[in-house]
Write a structure and sequence with these properties.
Helices cover 61% and strands 0% of the residues. By secondary structure, it is mostly helical.
């Protein structure tokens, strides 16, 4: 709704598979990239005035708390890949 209210131009459609493009090609087109990690996504959400206005500070703050806890749990977990990879070395 913010884009409509602010009359933002979404630009021309881009009917290409972006996964097939290099970083240089994406930059040449002028596309911004989404945050590559959950931590960076949460940092962006934390400062998003549009989402805070739409959903409210309480919901955003609670969501951030839950997702940050989830991220800490994920970062402290040992995956099967890590176990298989590193046990072979030692």
């Amino acid at each position: 709704m913010d884009g409509i209210r602010e009359q933002l131009d979404p630009g021309e459609p881009l009917n290409r598979n972006l996964y097939e493009l290099s970083a240089a090609e994406i930059a040449a087109i002028g596309l911004d990239q989404l945050p590559p990690s959950l931590a960076e996504s949460l940092a962006c959400l934390n400062v998003s005035g549009v989402l805070r206005e739409a959903l409210g500070d309480a919901l955003i703050d609670e969501f951030l708390t839950v997702k940050r806890r989830e991220l800490r749990q994920f970062q402290s977990a040992v995956t099967d890949w890590e176990r298989d990879r590193y046990l072979a070395f030692y």
